[in-house]
Input
Amino acid sequence: MAIGWYLTVSALIFCIGAVGVITRPNPLVILLCLELMLNAGNLALVAFSRMWGHEDGQIFALIVMVVAACEVTVGLGLIVAIYRRQLPVNVDDLNELNG
Amino acid sequence: MSAVLFFIAAIGALAGAIGVVVIRNPFYSVLSLVSHLIALAALFLLLRAEFVAAAQVVVYAGAVMVLYVFVVAYIGGADNPLHRPGSSLKFLAPLFGLAVAIELCIAMLGTALKGISSKGAPYVPGFGTPEHIGKLFLTTYLFPFEVASLLLLVAAIGAVVLARRRRGLEPDDAFEARLHIPRGVFTGTMAEAAGFRGGAGTAPETQAQTEPVGAHAAGEREPSEGGW
Output
């Protein structure tokens, strides 16, 4: 398959993730949709790595996976802290910083 | 053959992605993301990125998703509304997503990159194997590798600090009550070790069978009654 097909799939996954981040009110699902967007970026990086014949893009993809794992741990820690303080697990109700 | 595999994997990945956004229950969203990640690993394999595909399945679909499942089980995966009630985002968000998709497709069609319509560079044996990736990580990309390990350490400590149980958050009387649990003698408390109450070293018939442990040792009783 041509590289363009992989990039098309990557673009579609990115857009689906962006729509999820905008619409869903649950922070857990927002984190899941962020994962979708990061994975779309990973797919594009690996596709370009195949296109040029260098492995550098795959290194980028692995580093992105590390950053995504860090983001998940800190984000889930925040969600657990929100739940422990009996605040609503809903991004619309957590508007204390909304000036 | 590779075209058939590509379409199966691509449709699986897209269906998993749509499932994450559309399913109401967060638990099933996580499971949908797992299927999405596995389909994406198949796409990586088609792109000859063996090590990235293996890492995707083991690290992502294995470890990170287990973390998600635990948190969903802890919080309770009740059904959530898909949209904020009374919000115009319900119609605007798909329009926005469509606009971004069209923009990206225009960028792809109008690109000057010649290789985008090719099948990629000629295949070199060993491309994308752990051997090559490891060699790159330990030579050219050593600094990003070390920074990544430091980042993982910082994130682990941050998660522990964020999610730990904090003393200041519970009401004071509950905390006080926990301090004054009466303990039996010969249970190895600090008051026994210091000789303030019955226990190791002293006679067992000493008073304070149900004396509170802590600052209320036997000798400090009188000044508190006398007052100032």
Q: What stands out?
A: DSSP finds nine helices and no strands in chain B. Chain B touches chain A through 86 residues (CB under 8 Å).
